[in-house]
Amino acid sequence: MTRLGILYPPSGAEFEYYRHGERLGEDVRIALMGVRIFGDDDEHAPHHLRRTAALPNLETSARALAPLAPDAAVWACTSGSFIDGLGHARAQAEALGTMLRCPATSTSLAFSAALNALGIARVSIVATYPEATAAAFADFLRETGITVDAMRCLDAPSGPAAAALGEARFFESAAAMTVDPASALLIPDTAVPTLEWIQDLEDRLGCTVLTANQVSLWHTARLAGLNTALPGIGRLWESTEFEVR
Fold first, then answer.
1. Using an 8 Å Cβ cutoff, are 214 and 194 in contact?
2. What whole-number distance in Å separates Cα of residue 78 and Cα of residue 36?
3. 225: alpha, beta or left, given left = phi > 0 and alpha = psi -120 to 50?
4. What is the distance between the alpha carbons of residues 164 and 169, in angstroms, rounded to a whole number?
5. Residue closest to 202 by CA, chosen among 240, 236, 154
6. By CB neighbour count within 10 A (0-12 exposed, 13-18 middle, 19+ buried), where does 231 fall?
């Protein structure tokens, strides 16, 4: 049996990990543990995100997950992993890996890994966050060597507010941008259920679309040694040939 450990800030899109994680194989199990988030209705503000992103906060949830002995784990929160930059994101993954005794990543690191695997170096972003938080994500990507061509901010102050934006809002925002077919469109918020409409958005835009839960599940599965292709949830999942770091 292969168990994937998901540390997730509760916001309503947890079902995507179960629904699509179960498609990876009959012997794959998803172990999802909630992580305390700070800020209530203003949780996307940078000062609240830094509290959520603090290592002791993540370690509290990892400690509860440890008895399940996951084969790989992810801190499945984009803003809670990029807010203090690439160095802190790596420190989060290292701390989780040490505590859980398995390879570990985060959503922000998973975006970087997915872009590297696909050979994509330029992106456009539809960010659910307020401007200051969205800018921190763009800065994080630049630290990893990615060029940000354009970004639109939807100014949702929290995960639940982001989830309530609805599919149409993302399609409208993406359609208003000019995205190079050789680049990718990023939608970085694990609160937003996206896996059912990524394929449609890719078909409309003619480019790769990467979303938070999509890359989080993909990177965790690959770190656990699972190479299953999952059609229907974007180009990222169509191949098993990528080299993943």
1. yes
2. 15
3. left
4. 10
5. 236
6. exposed
The pLDDT tens digits of the residues spanning 114-155 come to: 999 999 999 999 999 999 999 999 999 999 999 999 999 999
With a cut of 90, say whether residue 243 has pLDDT above it: no
Give DSSP secondary structure letters for the chain: -EEEEEEE--SS-THHHHHHHGGG-TTEEEEEEE----SGGGTTSHHHHHHHH-HHHHHHHHHHHGGG--SEEEE--SHHHHTTHHHHHHHHHHHHHHHHTS-EEEHHHHHHHHHHHHT--EEEEEE-S-HHHHHHHHHHHHHTT-EEEEEEE---SSHHHHHTT-HHHHHHHHHTS---TTSEEEE--TTS--TTTHHHHHHHHTSEEEEHHHHHHHHHHHHTT-----TTS-GGGS-S-----
Q: What global pTM score does this model have?
A: 0.96
Among 200, 133, 192, 195, smallest CA distance to 171 is for: 200
* CA 158, chain centre distance (Å): 16
The tally of CA atoms less than 13 A away on the side-chain side of residue 79 is 33
Token pair listed for 28: 């794959």
For the chain, give the longest Cα–Cα distance: 47
Task: Give the model confidence (pLDDT) of 31-64 as tens digits.
Answer: 999 999 999 999 999 999 999 999 999 999 999 9
